[in-house]
């Protein structure tokens, strides 16, 4: 029988040398460096990351219910897609991001990294942010309804109330929170656009504001100051209270901020107008709106362009004041139309929805 071969373990002919203490020091230092690097990339970073968020069809349904529902007057449930666009924001009060997240977002062509202090005031809490977003969303919905009714020549009433006074401004000491503004230089303040127009027309001269405080009508004279943007202001924050002739309900949970106003207004107009505004084409867009139909700029438009195209949109309605951020960030296959007013937006959708030439419309 063959016996298994056994081998003796190898033994060096020379005695073992003591390990160089420098080797141990280097090994410890290297291990410590790895640990520190791992900890560093996981440390919170003072940045906010913006990435493309979901889209919602304002003339479609959410959870089996119409996103926009009109009751109390004749309406015409439309077909098509008029998507509002969103941005997913991480960091700051939403929950801090770490260094690794930030570095990854810097390298991503679809994400944007901003210093936290440029986005949120220091000390903003999650509860405060949630409340601010909810208030902005409610205000944008009311302004959208007002703008849509104005477009349709449907009468409603709007009351402007002072919601805050900027310290050391023209209004400080003359107006108080809760004052109801009635007229400026004899012109009834039916909408905020009337007040803006009259202040700018005065070109820095004193104006007389008629307001109601505790049920008493009082006239106060103030001299508007010019803002860096060139408009004349009083230094007040205004809140609008509307009385509409019928009910418009907008159902959209877990989305905040004012940037959906223009798309809400378009959706309401499509509901109030017989036929389909879109002609079956897929539109998306963004923009704040006031009760007079003026479209304002928003944040995160580069991410909204990506989100819109990912959802299949052919056309994107962009506020004119965001054009600098639009250029160079338009995804392939997406046509961007510039708008300054709700009238511009409706005209664009009508033209493109009927098969018209996009080159006839203003772009960025």
Give me some keywords for this one:
disordered N terminus; Ribosomal Protein S5, domain 2; single chain; globular; six-stranded mixed beta sheet
Mean pLDDT: 86
How many domains, as an integer?
2
The gross shape turns out to be globular
Sequence of strands across the biggest β-sheet: 8-2-6-18-21-22
Which CATH C-level class of the largest domain is it? Answer: Alpha Beta
Care to describe what's here?
The chain is an alpha+beta fold and 364 residues long. It has two domains: 224 residues, Ribosomal Protein S5, domain 2 (2-Layer Sandwich); 86 residues, PDZ domain (Pdz3 Domain), CATH 2.30.42.10. It is 30% helix and 28% strand. It is built from nine helices and 22 strands. Strands 8-2-6-18-21-22 form a six-stranded mixed β-sheet. Strands 9, 10, 11, 12, 13 and 16 form a six-stranded antiparallel β-sheet that branches. Strands 1-7 form a two-stranded antiparallel ribbon. A hairpin with a 2-residue loop joins β12 and β13. α4 runs parallel beside α6. The longest helix has 26 residues. The chain is globular, with a radius of gyration of 29 Å. 34% of the residues are buried. The N terminus is likely disordered.
